[in-house]
Amino acid sequence: MKTPAPKLVSLNEALFSVKAFAAAMAALYIAFSMGLPRPFWAMATAYIVSGPLSGAVRSKAVFRVAGTALGCAGAIALVPALADSPELLTLALGLWVAVCLFISLLDRTPRSYLFMLAGYTIGLIGFPAVTDPSTIFDTGLARVEEILIGILCATVVHSVVFPQSVGPALLGRLDATLRDAERWTREALSRETAPEGAANARERQKLARDITELRVMATHLPYDTSDVRWMTRAVRAMQDRMAYLLPLTAGIEDRLDALRGQLPAEVSALLADLDRWVAGDDVEGGADRLRAEIARLSPAIGADTGWKEATLLNLLTRLRSLVDIHQDCRDLRAHIRDGKSSLPERLDPLTRRRSRDVFHLDAGMALWSGFAALLGIAVVCAFWIGTGWSSGSAAAMMTAVFCCFFASLDDPAPGIRLFLVFTLLSVPLAAFYLLVVLPSFDSFPMLVLGLAPTFLTLGVFVARPATMGKAMALLMGVVGSLSLLDLGTGDFASFLNSNVAQVVGIATALLVTQLCRSVGAAWSARRLLRAGWSEIAAMTAARSGIPVGSFENRMLDRVGLLSSRLALAGPQQDLAAADAVNDLRVGLNVAELQRARRALGGPAAPHVARLLGAVGQHFRGLSSRRLGTPPAEVLPMMDAALSNLSAEPRSAERDRAVIALAGLRRALFPHLTFAAPDPSSESLREPVTA
């Protein structure tokens, strides 16, 4: 039986290409009809905005419109004020680009497009006006109109013509991620009988990366065409609950490793029931019986409580949380599937428990990226003004655009280099269109027919992630050359000069990026780890309450970001033992200890505070590149804290502190046995006052 040959073009790819081409031609026609000076800019914008998912196109369009208007306003404000000093004007434009790029890199949602567009839009409008500032208002208005026409045409076409909604794609990813989480949970529950553990670091990193990608996709939901947009709160609540599964399941694995061979038979039976329940099998009593059984088996904290009892209590508490999270995810998914407009009373609070700081942000790299953009613009503008080059403004525009486009990457140089290579490859095709084909056309329908073969073909490759960058470079190279027709300069000399300026601008961006902005995957991985260590150190010294969800979400995001960088970094001695998931567990236990400590009134509070100080000092050392294991004096501090906590009057805060303390000990010293605290040590137990 023969295997069917793969399709050269899929239906989705063909549909995307046709829609993108239709949007571009509609934008071009409207721009021509309005008599705008650069109609091909509208065509180029339509392609830049187009995407396979209609919700993503609309969400980005809103911010693109705002960013374009903001960039235009900046150009109109700066150019007349500094028209008499080209050097100061180009510096001011470069500073605007740098500041906007800095702000955009501090927001990893579609909102970042607003500031990125504001940055390089001022370059597109402002640099050509340096030599002719008298027309800045008319030029700015025309550029905004052309760009807005492209945005609106792409948005309308992708929203109306066979729209591909974000909702179904998001729900498919959500279900797949939930299945992965359930599989890893079951593997963790079998840890008692699986010494090596089925769940490995790659699975953890993949789960973290998937949850982060789901968060980004969910930002498009309010702009989607599907009914899922009404379920945005429930989708985000489900993502928040799934985020806790990563540290929770990793902690359960660790506790089962520690207690292997020492678990009571009833706890082993509970694990078997829980495994079947997660798998979807009917378990008598369901989640309610599992919770009751966990409560019955949980050991009470007393004056003689040791690390084994504390670790068992920690395990059972984590199992209770595991039941709650899986049940919440199932209920939320059923709610989304039913499309109900309101949540049950039990689930409604989950949708209101939102944290604003869910992504890792690197202000230092954002600032450095802005400086690199400013430096590149300054270099090319100095050459332009110094030589009086007539096309220097185009080179400055390209430098601004390409310093912004790839700034979010660790090493933007490969992306810029690829765009430069395929821009050069587009020159013969652009010359053929500009100098041979288009001069013979005298009507818009003939223009469309002439452009269709090339742009419909390139559109198919734009729809493929593996070839999108190359195809967009070819496409933009051709459209950029066609824009010479707008100015009536479609001759060979103008064509050559324009392409040289474009290449010089991209090459300048590449050179500056290679010299002062490119960093390796290993460098970025270390920076991510140090960011997590610094945050843990700051948490140990926090005087106010630690917001629920903030640290967890940021660390989870860092785990996902680390996964790809560790894979690219190769063997690195200092990264081999890096475990951001363990750092996440440390941070969660530190946060829990901080919250519980404030409610403790007995002698345990100073011991917990002293322990947190020592842990903070250790992580400050890690973040300062002084790598090493936790100092030995932390262990007697932990023993003292446990001994004094066990003597505290019974309370929910005391039990939470004991559970967190056991988790912190396992995270920092995973190879220790359950030796009981030495009661003869004077530092361990202080008299409990009434």
TrEMBL record:
The chain crosses the membrane at residues 20-49, 61-82, 88-106, 113-131, 147-171, 363-385, 416-438, 444-464. Keywords: Cell membrane, Membrane, Plasmid, Transmembrane, Transmembrane helix, Transport. It is found in: Cell membrane. GO terms for molecular function: transmembrane transporter activity. It is a multi-pass membrane protein. The keyword Transmembrane helix applies. GO terms for cellular component: plasma membrane. It comes from the Bacteria. Its main location: membrane. PANTHER family: MULTIDRUG RESISTANCE PROTEIN MDTO, P-HYDROXYBENZOIC ACID EFFLUX PUMP SUBUNIT-RELATED. This is Fusaric acid resistance protein. It comes from Azospirillum brasilense.
